[in-house]
Amino acid sequence: MVIVEHENIELDYCTNCKGVWFDSGELELLLEAAELENYEAFLNRIIDSQEASSPEKKRKCPICNKKMKKSYIDENDELLIDICKKGHGIWFDGGEVAHLLKILSDSSGKVDSRGEVMSFLGDVFKY
Q1: Model pTM?
Q2: In the chain, fewer beta carbons within 10 Å around the N or the C end?
Q3: Looking at the 3D structure of the chain, how many domains does it have?
């Protein structure tokens, strides 16, 4: 794991699997820095999401070492992430952060000052 930092947001990035760990509050900082509208409602939806049935093996939280819940966070059930049940953070597999940013960017319809953040993250977290 390596630490990737952008505008006081530290993310843990796995160079092997290309996954990204967001500690509690870091995804909120990222979405705020990207100036995405209604990100609070989106975050609440993620946290309150139902556990999905999936053949994927459950990951353990790097903080508490407990199995995390797997949840779809998009309307088409394509983006499956791991969420710590104790609120320690969220794990995105390789490519999923870029997928999330595309979904959020498409839904907001704006492409202004977010460009720098989106470009940086898109480059770092794509496959």
Answers
A1: 0.79
A2: C
A3: 1
68-99 burial, b if ≥16 CB within 10 A, otherwise e? bebbbbeeeeebbbbbbeeebbbbbbbebbbb
Among 63, 66, 104, 59, residue whose Cα is nearest residue 80: 59
Distance CA 127, CA 117 (A): 18
- Signed CA dihedral, 122, 111, 100, 63: sign only: positive
Cα 58 to Cα 68: distance, rounded to the nearest angstrom = 6
Q: Please give the chain's pLDDT, 127 residues, in tens.
A: 888 777 677 888 888 888 889 999 888 887 777 777 777 888 888 888 889 988 889 999 999 999 999 999 888 888 999 999 999 999 999 888 888 877 777 665 554 444 555 565 655 555 4
Q: Which residue range forms the structural domain that includes residue 91?
A: 2-125
Provide the 8-state DSSP code for 74.
Answer: S
Residues in the chain: 127
